Amino acid sequence: MKKRLLSLAAVLFVAVVMNAQTVKEEVKKDSKAVGTAVEKGAKATGEGVKDAAKWTGKTAEKGAKATAEGVKDGAKWTGKKVKKGVKATKKGVKDGAKWTGKTAKKGADAVSDTYKDVKDDIKKKD
Fold first, then answer.
1. How many CB atoms lie within 10 A of CB 4?
2. DSSP per position, 61-94
3. Phi-psi sector, 61: left (phi>0), alpha (psi -120 to 50), beta
4. Residue-level pLDDT at 78
5. What's the alpha-carbon Rg for the chain, to the nearest Å?
6. How far apart are CA 54 and CA 33, in angstroms?
7. Please, what is the end-to-end C-alpha distance for the chain in angstroms?
8. In what helix (H) or strand (E) does residue 1 lie, and over which residues does it extend?
9. Backbone angles phi, psi at 84, to 5 degrees
10. Which DSSP helix (H) or strand (E) runs through 126?
11. The pTM is what?
């Protein structure tokens, strides 16, 4: 009976050792698969970051060019508006001077006519 128990114990021991070896191999395979997946993920993340950096750089360059063109166009527009404003101001000053001259002449003529009328009235009374 002791032999049978020892034989049975030996068989169980061998079965447990074989099972343990199988589990060990599966854990090894799983850990290898996880390591490979992590490496692939890290590589993909690195490439994604690299691509995003390139995209950001290109977009920033485009934005800078657009801003420069906008400033340039704004300066041109402002220059044109200033020229138009100067022309309009010159014309307004010129027209104002003409009007002032005409009005002053009319006023002077009116004063002169009034002076003559007053002078005539004074002569008539004397």
1. 8
2. HHHHHHHHHHHHHHHHHHHHHHHHHHHHHHHHHH
3. alpha
4. 92
5. 53
6. 32
7. 177
8. none
9. -60, -40
10. none
11. 0.40
User: Tokens 């068989």 label which residue?
Assistant: 11
Q: Would the pLDDT of 67 be above 80?
A: yes
Which residue in the block uniquely carries the two structure tokens 């404003």? 85
CB-facing half-sphere around the CA of 23: CA atoms within 13 A: 6
Assigned token pair, 95: 């027209």
Residue that is written with structure tokens 């003409």 in the block: 98
Residue type, 105: K
Alpha-carbon 34 to chain mean position: 42
Report the pLDDT averaged over residues 81-97: 90
Q: What string of DSSP letters covers 44-68?
A: HHHHHHHHHHHHHHHHHHHHHHHHH
State residue 39's pLDDT score. 84
H helices, E strands: number in the chain: 1, 0
Tell me the CB-side half-sphere exposure of residue 65, using CA atoms within 13 A.
Answer: 6
Residue indicated by tokens 């169980």: 12
- Residue 48 pLDDT > 70: yes
